[in-house]
Amino acid sequence: MPLEIVVPQMGESIVEATVAQWLKKPGEAVKAREALVELETDKVNQVIEADTDGVLTQILAEVGATVAVGQAIGLIEAGAAASTSQPPSPRPTGESAKGESADATPVAAAMAAANNVPLEGVAGTGPAGKIGKADVAAKLTAPAPPPVVVLAPPSDGGGGGRPVERIPLSRKRKAIATNLKNAQNTAAMLTTFNEVDMSKVMELRARRKVDFEGRFGVGLGFMSFFTKATVGALKQFPMVNAEIDDARGEIILKKYYDIGIAVGLEDGLVVPIIRDADKLSFAAIEKKIKEVASKAKEGKLGLSDLTGGSFSITNGGTFGSMLSTPILNYPQVGILGMHNIIKRPVVVGDEIVIRPIMYLALSYDHRIIDGSTAVRFLVKVKELIEDPETLLLEG
Question: Which of these is catalytic: 211, 245, 370, 387?
């Protein structure tokens, strides 16, 4: 009797998913714990593995189909032999013809297979040489499909007959849009700004980075300093580490410091959580950030990596942003925005000097955080960054 491939429980708030890609074709042999199909949910992508050795005999839900938790989406005949007439499926993990791993992301592998691009001929520019979607796109030789032409009415402001392309929103992008709009509609968001002199942090990093990496096996980045500074400021201004329980009319003051670190991906932003950041050393923070960032880029984040969190940090400076107003990661009531570092003329004492300056932004929920609290919180972050030795005293 065939065994059903069933959509597993993926978190209490997730009741359905979209079939993103099948990694096997009907008639192909599968082994226990081998990846069969990738599902896309509102929060993460999840791969379903085979429970037993056998053959994938039937696909019940094609790519793009919406499926529910507990629904059967395919059938496996346990212990059966593969069909010899079945052509091999694309190698989603990027395995080359020589048996060497090209190490591609699932999206890149699927894109390469769809366009007949050999992964062994693609140079990866991602972490550890991993092949990403952009790497495959650069290798495409076939012309792109023509955009969908719509005879737009004259009232659209663009004139009729102009070509447009319609791209369906992914489940994740829809969820991001809904959550961000919910934050805007619910919270009384306001943003305050300040600037921070990065001289001492940059000097400390330059002086200790070789020894730090040699001892701990990870680089000393800016994010650990800002995570530590954020925790120090949250301890002094606990209302910024809270949330509102609208149903009960209560403020929930969190006695822990789970800091969300925003990571930008090809298909949207995710915010994995650094749990109990107040108890972690600089090295432990850097290792954890590297771990969750790698998992995010490889599509391996689980719900436990993303749920919860008491405050978030986003770094638009990695993309060259000078200044922005970050949106709250609701129901959190505060988010710190970092930006790029630019040498600017500043007045120190009675002299004009050149210093590496970063603009900081704190968006906050004005329903429970007063303007004076928000300003003082951001000033505290600035003070700790400008005198990084005090971060050791802030715990």
Answer: 370
